[in-house]
Amino acid sequence: MSAGLLQQMLIGALLGLSVYLPLRCGQLSLATPGFFAIGGTVAALLSTRIPAFAGTGATSPLPALLLEMGLGGLLAALLAWAIGGTVLRLRGIYLAIATIALVEILRVITLNLPFTGGALGIFGIPQPFATASGYAGFTLVLLALVCWLCARLEQLRLGRAMAAIRDDELAATCVGIDTAAVKLNAFVLSALLAGLTGALAAHFLNSWNAKVGSFDASITTLAFVVFGGSRTWLGPVIGGLVLTALPELLRPVGDLRLIVFGLVILLGPVLFPQGLITPQALQGLGHGLVGLGQQLRGYGHQLLERANGPRRP
Amino acid sequence: MSAAPLLEVAGLSCRFGGLVALNEVSLAVREGEIFGLIGPNGAGKTTLFNVISALTPPSSGRVLWRGQAITRSRPDQLSRLGLARTFQNLRLFDSLSVRDNVLVGLHRFAASPLAAGLLGSSKVRRRQRELEQRALELLALVGLAEEAQLPAASLPYGERRRLELARALATEPRLLLLDEPAAGMNPAEKNDLCELIRAIRDHFDLTVMIIEHHVPLMMRLCDRLAVLNFGERIALGTPEVVRHDSKVIEAYLGSPR
Ligand SMILES: Nc1ncnc2c1ncn2[C@@H]1O[C@H](COP(=O)(O)OP(=O)(O)OP(=O)(O)O)[C@@H](O)[C@H]1O
Ligand SMILES: [Mg+2]
Description:
Structural class of chain B: alpha/beta
Order of helices and strands of chain B: EEEHEEHEHHHHEHEHEEHH
Low-confidence stretches of chain B: none
Low-confidence stretches of chain A: none
Radius of gyration of chain A: 22 Å
Number of domains of chain A: 2
Bound molecules: adenosine-5'-triphosphate, magnesium ion
Oligomer: heterodimer
């Protein structure tokens, strides 16, 4: 596996987590690619138009990248916050449709703005890392950090309130949860994550255009979560990694790969309606690993005994 | 000025299309009492609870909390005010553990800045442990301490009812609305539940409004009762008064003619 593919997979995992956050409180938002596109556009503009962001050396400065990620994430989060109050009143499929519309609106705006390069987009985005491995290393750290934060979130009041809303919104409001505020928090966090991921992706891809935030991308990122599961943070991570890698790994089978990819997306939910990763599955895996450990230890002892055997008198 | 009743319902009507579920219902619940609500199926008892807890908007009339109108409040605001309820058709958070269901009830007391929470500052961790302890105490109170780590969905029916009660108590209510908490229980279990409700009232010093079909049990448990029939409040008073009310006898036994 090349470092380039690994980098794409890691970005897929980050986007999966962005879809997961609202879904954890039962909100089917497909806006992630829109916020991803915003973050990328911010980074592309800053680093190609402002010399300080491009730097003078062979690679652009790392602080500039971090600043762009912060600004891209912040702009996406601000937009989410501004529209969330209204959009999140919609439920289920209506919210999904509204967020698809949002992605489309952002795409058309980006296409028509005078400074975003139209359909061709922005080229020659400076590189903060000389190699794909550099990117992958950085993104791996970022993903680990985000995973850790998501795992913490699940243990916190906000995370529990999100799960409660997903299970029964009416009961949640009756025990004192301001459901509108919790949903807005999840939506804003989702946008923040998508925005900063976009800023990173723009550098890695070297060019950025309006097509990045399209309806197709909405469906693909949703598939990450449907495939991996939305009960716990690990699901969308696995979904994002696997489904991003799959089309590349299937390249040898030629045109068939799209069909196989489609089948996986179709059969995944049929065979695993809760997604691959569920708390039960994790528990089973845990028990399995403990069992495996014990078995290995047993083998170890046997081997040791055998190795030590002849030397004994 | 003498204190206003904890909860007052004034001229409350609720229509669903042509159906009049509540018709000009008025009643007041005093601090500390166990107030019963009885009536035949479809009389509007659950609808009254839904209007009080702001889940269903009334067609007309008002709900007052210590004399203040709360008709336009949201359910979560009422929860903060001190209103909690259980549901006739049980509404637990099924994907969460038994303990976490109660922790969600403690939501209001767990406030911490998100950043401090995510980073797990020692203060936040200490608070978290306190709340977990509190959840376990509440579970012990309803006899579910052993089940704390099980998924809520795995509990049998009677235990689900008690878990819902613990979750409601976690919000530290002043007024607790119980919609048929003893439904589906056998007579012995019903008696136990009555004792539990009394004990809870005394222990937490709260006011209880309860719906239950078992009339003799309600006569023993409640300080006062209101009787609904076809959305109208046909009687109100102590068990003694209600027992001998001719309209009530008619509603339950049919007209003598
Ligand atoms: N949301 C609703 N929409 C339409 N009709 C409703 C709604 N909620 C309740 N009703 C009707 O209002 C009437 C009163 O219902 P309610 O549930 O309050 O009765 P209840 O006294 O609680 O009865 P039970 O003892 O069977 O629980 C019933 O005829 C019911 O069908
Ligand atoms: Mg009812």
